[in-house]
From TrEMBL:
Molecular function as annotated in GO: cysteine desulfurase activity; pyridoxal phosphate binding
Superkingdom of origin organism: Bacteria
Species of the source: Stenotrophomonas daejeonensis
E.C. code: 2.8.1.7
Alphabetical keyword list: Pyridoxal phosphate, Transferase
Protein name as annotated: Cysteine desulfurase
């Protein structure tokens, strides 16, 4: 069975030929409204390279069967492919495969922590500390837990440049705080939070940490074990993998102590009407048929990112970010949200006198895809006192020419709206 990439991908010390890499992404070749597509919505979801598309399709064409439920050849192939993907993702994250729960994405991963770890443990008087810059997926599950346990939510504030106020954060880690939820990289501001330092301070005080790695895993060299957190969540569709794939890494002692979240097939060893013996982690948390083809694709996606080299990806995106930011600053009436020294290639902005939705709609007519709105981060936009922003988020396969095309489109749209 060959579910690996059909293209030769070798990790190399030299930076990849980015023009050659771009050709791997068929969707980037299409037009929108008769204009060449400029896809700057990568923080929302990333495009998929051919090896990922091919591997997903090859699974359905040649190997499709359910996992762990059949002894026939296809069943074994499907199980091997699924478990192989777990191994690849574990290596990519720098963790043990038996500590990695595969699930549909970050939203599921954080809810798993909320329902299996937090709900049975927290009580009135306890505090859940969350940062101001969290995505709703790292706020709402904690609110649901707080409602049911009597715990309260405390907010760690940010500074106007979009960095976390670390002194305030550490001061907020009082004895009542049982759990801290923080993004590794903000999906709105691009800020890269010093999660290692934050988790060290939390651990010293006995606070359990949940790091939302959705926007970090696709863009930064990553060693999750070295961060020192308790839980780390990732989502496959932002990592050039299929939608409906993701994972939760957790320390072994947590996985062993946590009750299952969902019950059903796969997560059991033995069932009778007198009771059930659950499977070992991570299978204990994987009830039902998973997105097998999706995980096969995700395994190939992480191999693809590794073959490009994550240092190279980060350097390429920093170069694109610097170019984009410099050009955008030159446009009259632009306000940028998030100017941290350490940030990923995510730029939220507003143009004076233009509503963000109008901007995004008119940019779309020029072939440019950006997101507009609140980016699933209402409390963050409330801090800045705005109802919506436009967000351009770049990936390694974007080009300097696309940045020029974006700026030309922006100036045109601005003139139309002005
Ligand atoms: N957290 C962050 C920081 C995100 O950017 C996103 C996706 N927009 C999520 C969580 C939600 O992840 P998923 O798409 O896997 O539900």
């Amino acid at each position: 069975m060959n579910l690996s990439s059909p293209l030769p991908l070798q990790a190399t010390d030299a930076a990849p030929d980015w023009a050659r890499v771009r050709v791997d992404f068929p969707l980037l070749m299409r037009e929108v409204h008769g204009k060449p597509l400029v896809y700057f919505d990568n923080a929302n979801t990333a495009q998929k390279p051919l090896p990922v598309i091919e591997a997903t399709s090859a699974f359905y064409r040649r190997h499709n069967a359910n996992v762990s439920r059949a002894v026939h050849a296809l069943g074994t192939e499907a199980t091997d492919a699924y478990e192989g993907a777990r191994g690849k993702l574990a290596r990519f994250l720098g963790v043990r495969a038996d500590e990695l729960v595969l699930c549909s994405g970050t939203t599921f991963a954080i809810n798993l922590v909320a329902y299996s770890w937090a709900l049975p443990r927290l009580k009135a008087g306890d505090v859940i500390l969350v940062s101001r810059m969290e995505h709703h997926a790292n706020i709402v599950p904690w609110q649901l837990v707080a409602q049911r346990t009597g715990a309260t939510i405390r907010v760690a504030e940010i500074a106007p440049d979009g960095t976390l106020d670390l002194d305030a954060l550490h001061a907020a880690m009082t004895p009542e705080v049982k759990l801290l939820a923080v993004a590794h990289v903000s999906n709105v501001l691009g800020t890269i939070n010093p999660v290692r330092e934050i988790c060290r301070e939390a651990r010293r005080r006995g606070i359990v940490t949940v790091v939302d790695g959705s926007q970090a895993a696709p863009h930064l060299p990553l060693d999750v074990a070295a961060i020192g957190c308790d839980f780390y969540a990732v989502t496959g569709h932002k990592m050039c993998g299929p939608t409906g794939t993701g994972a939760l890494w957790a320390r072994r002692e947590h996985l062993q102590a946590m009750p299952p979240f969902l019950g059903g097939g796969e997560m059991i060893k033995e069932v009778s009407f007198d009771g059930t013996v659950f499977n070992d982690p991570p299978h204990k948390f994987e009830a039902g048929t998973p997105n097998i083809a999706g995980f096969v694709g995700l395994g190939v996606a992480v191999d693809y990112l590794d073959a490009l080299g994550r240092e190279h990806i980060a350097a390429r995106e920093q170069e694109l970010l610097a170019h984009f930011t410099e050009e955008l600053r030159r446009v009259d009436g632009v306000r940028i949200f998030g100017t941290a020294a350490h940030k990923a290639a995510v730029v939220s902005f507003q143009v004076e006198g233009a509503h963000s939705h109008d901007m995004a709609t008119l940019l779309d007519l020029q072939g440019v895809a950006v997101r507009s709105g609140q980016h699933c981060a209402h409390p963050l936009l409330q801090y800045f006192g705005v109802a919506a922003t436009c967000r351009a988020s770049l990936a390694f396969y974007n080009t300097h020419e696309e940045i020029e095309a974006f700026m030309a489109a922006l100036k045109k749209v601005r003139a139309l709206l002005g």
